[in-house]
Every structure is written in structure tokens, then in C-alpha cells.
């Protein structure tokens, strides 16, 4: 079982899953376990950014753009993320939570963690959407990158099929 703790470094099993090009950059990356884990990496993350991820209300969405499923998060004030979801077929449809972890992408230190509740329909939509996409990871990543170049994060979020507003802890 993976153990995450604020102030510690991401477990090596998770770091090994990340493309090497992500270090020292802002990124979002989804790990489709049950429950799903979303990593929000910011180079030199400011304490206020970590606090925003941990405590502020935000809008969460599930979008499918050009057959690529995305999880989106809009915290307002230009602070938003999207993460393409490659495979959610193994997610438990009743795992009604998503873990959001903010970290410094320079050293993978965990800065904040948050769990949000999600509806069964959202997990079901992710599972169905990922079941329809190519099983070739490299082709998927190319297609997702093309979508991310054509559309802004907010445009992807606006296309969400299901949106949910999360409240303050």
C-alpha cells in the first residue's frame, strides 16, 4: 500500500510512473488506481498555491474532447488543471473519492493533500470513456497532447459532461 505524507517525497513507485520530462515543470498526472490519485506538480510551488489546492472550493469536471477523457479542476483566478485519463477500467465504480496531491515538481516533495468525494456516475463515465480509447499508450499520449495544444484547460473544462462544485473542508 502506498503511503503519502505532507513534507515527504513521493514514493519511488509513483515517481517511476511519471514521464521523465515532467520534473521541473508544472504538470498534472492521473494515476488510475482505486481511488484515483491526481498529482498536481508545480515547479517551486508557493505555499498559497498548496493551500488553494488543499482548502479552497473548486469546480471538478469530467470531459471527453475528441475521444480523449480528461479530469479538470478549476480553482478560479486562472488556477486550473486538466489531466488526460488513459485507463480507468480497473477503477472500482464504488470508490467514490479522488485524492489530489500538490507537490513541488523540482524535488517531488508533497505540499498538500486533499480527498474529494465523487459521484458513481463520474467514475462510470471515466471507465466507459477509457474503454473506448486506443490501448497503445504512445498513440494515446500523442492524441491527448494534440487536444491540449488545440484547447486551453478552461475550454476542456467547459466541455465537461459532468461537473461538481467541491466545498471547503
Describe the structure.
The protein has 169 residues and is an alpha+beta fold. It has one domain. 27% of the residues lie in helices and 32% in strands. The protein has a 4-stranded mixed sheet, with helices on one face. A hairpin with a 4-residue loop joins strand 6 and strand 7. The longest helix is centred in the C-terminal third of the chain and has 14 residues.
Number of domains: 1
Secondary-structure-derived class: alpha+beta
SSE run: HEEHEEEEEHHHE
Strand content: 25-35%
Quantity of strands, as a count = 8
Oligomer: single chain
Tally of individual helices: 5
Largest sheet: 4 strands, mixed
Give, in spatial order, the strands making up the sheet with the most strands. Answer: 1-2-6-7
Report how far apart the termini are.
Answer: 25 Å
Helicity range: 25-40%
Mean pLDDT: 86
Low-confidence stretches: none
Bulk shape:
globular
Radius of gyration over C-alpha positions, nearest whole angstrom: 15 Å
List the helices and strands and how they pair.
Elements: H1 12-15, E1 27-31, E2 36-42, H2 47-55, E3 58-65, E4 68-74, E5 80-84, E6 97-104, E7 109-117, H3 120-131, H4 137-150, H5 153-158, E8 162-166
Parallel strand pairs: 2-6
Antiparallel strand pairs: 1-2, 3-4, 3-8, 4-5, 6-7
Q: What is shown here, in short?
A:
This protein has 169 residues and is of the alpha+beta class. It has helices at residues 12-15, 47-55, 120-131, 137-150, 153-158, and strands spanning 27-31, 36-42, 58-65, 68-74, 80-84, 97-104, 109-117, 162-166.
